[in-house]
Amino acid sequence: MAEQKKSDSIKVAFLLNLAFTILELVGGLISGSIAIIADSLHDFADSLALGLGWYFERKSENEKSNERYTYGYKRFSMLSALINALVLMLGAIFIFYVSIQRILNPQMPDVPWMIGTAILAIILNGIGAWKLKSGKSLNKKVLLVHLLEDTVGWIAVLIVSILLLFFNIPVLDPILAIVVNLAVLIYISVKLVDIIKIFLQRVPEGVNVPLLEQKILSIDGVERVNHFHVWGLTEQKKVVTVHVKIKELGISEQSILKNKIYKVFDDLDTEHVTIDLQEYSAYLELLFEDHQQRLGVLDEQVRRMAVRHAERLYIEGKCTKDEALERGITQAEMELRNL
What pTM value is reported for the model? Predict the structure, then answer.
C-alpha cells in the first residue's frame, strides 16, 4: 500500500492538471483569448508528461525483475524524468518564441478572464505541487518542477493582470513570461544533466572510488582490486561490481573476507553488490598462460616477481602483454641484483 501511495500522488497531480487544461481550453475558446489558448497547449504538454510520469513511476514500483529486465523496472522512472525534462525544455522554448512575438506586437488580453483563470490555476497547481513535495525520486522532482513552474507563472499572471486593470502596459505579460521561463530552463537543464549522467553510468556524486578501493586493499588477504565499477541504477540506488584477487585461503576464510568487503559498501545505498573472488596466483597463471615458455627458463623468484610487475603494467594499460612481461622480467632481475 505504501508503494501505491507514492505513484498515487502523481496520479492526483495528473488528473488535476488535465482537468484544468480542459477548463482552460474551453475558457480560452469562449473568451477568444489567444494567450489562454496558447497556455492551454503548454499545460496539455504538462498533462501528458504527468500522465507518463504516473505510468512509469507506478511500473517502477510494482513490477519485479524478470528474464528481460533483470534489474527490474526501477529505471522506467528515470526514463520518464528524461522525457519530462525534454518536454519542459521544448515548452520553455515555445513560450520564449510566443513572448517575443507579443513584445514586438503588444496586445491587451482579456484582464477579468485572466484574473479568474489565474486564481483557479494557482489553486489546482498548488494542490498538485503539494502532493508531490515529499517525493525523493528524480522523476517526481522533475514533475514537481512542472507544477511549480505553472504555479509561479500563474501567480505572476495574477499580479500582471491586476496591474493591467489600472495601467495600459500589455508588454508586462510577455516580459514576465520570459523571466519565469528562463529560471525554469536553467533549473531543468541542471536536472537533465543529472539524468544523462545516470544513463551514462557515471560514478554517482559523493562516491569516492579510489578511497573505497584502498579500503578493500587494506583488508588482510587482499592482493589486488580489478574491474571496480560503481554506477547508479536510479538517482538513489547504486550498483557495485568488483573483482578482488586474494591470497590462498580456505573456503571459510574466503567467506569471512567477502563479508569484510561487503562492509566497505555499508554506507552506500546499494541495489546490488557483486564481489568476484579469485586467487591471485591462479589469476596470474591464467593471465600469462600463453607465455609459459618464456617464464619457464627463469628462476622461480624472478618469475614470481616478474609476473607481478608485468600484471601491474598491463592492467594500467602502459603496454601490451608481451611488452609488460619483458619489462617485468627486467625490473625483477634488477631488483634482485640490488638486494
Answer: 0.67
